[in-house]
Every structure is written in C-alpha cells, then in structure tokens.
Amino acid sequence: MANWITDQVVPGFSYEWPQTPASTSDERWVREIAKAYRVRQKYRGITSVGRW
Question: Where does the source fall among the domains of life (predicted)?
Fold first, then answer.
C-alpha cells in the first residue's frame, strides 16, 4: 500500500483505489485498510509501521 501511495510500481497490484462499501464510511474504510497493512507488516517482521 505504501508503495502505491507514493506512486512506486508494485507488480500485480491494482492501481485503482479500493471502493468504500456502501455501508461503511470513508474514514472507517481508510482506517481498516491501514489496519490490514499494519497487520501484514507485523507478520512480515516489520515493526516500524505507524499507528493512528
């Protein structure tokens, strides 16, 4: 996600912004994406991911 946000090429990653589900606010959707990113980084052994 971080590479996508900074316009770096990410093989196999869609460059379209994930659409917010109709029942979810934009803010909650962005927070859920950030949370999922942090969890994946944690399991990859990266610990310097910021928190909200």
Answer: Bacteria
Longest CA–CA span in the chain (Å) reads: 34
- Domain boundaries defined on the chain: 22-52
pTM reported for the whole predicted model: 0.50
Closest CA to 10 of 28, 35, 31, 37: 37
CA angle 35, 25, 10 (to 5 degrees): 45
What is the C-alpha separation between 25 and 48, in angstroms, rounded? 27
Question: Residue 21 pLDDT more than 80?
Answer: yes
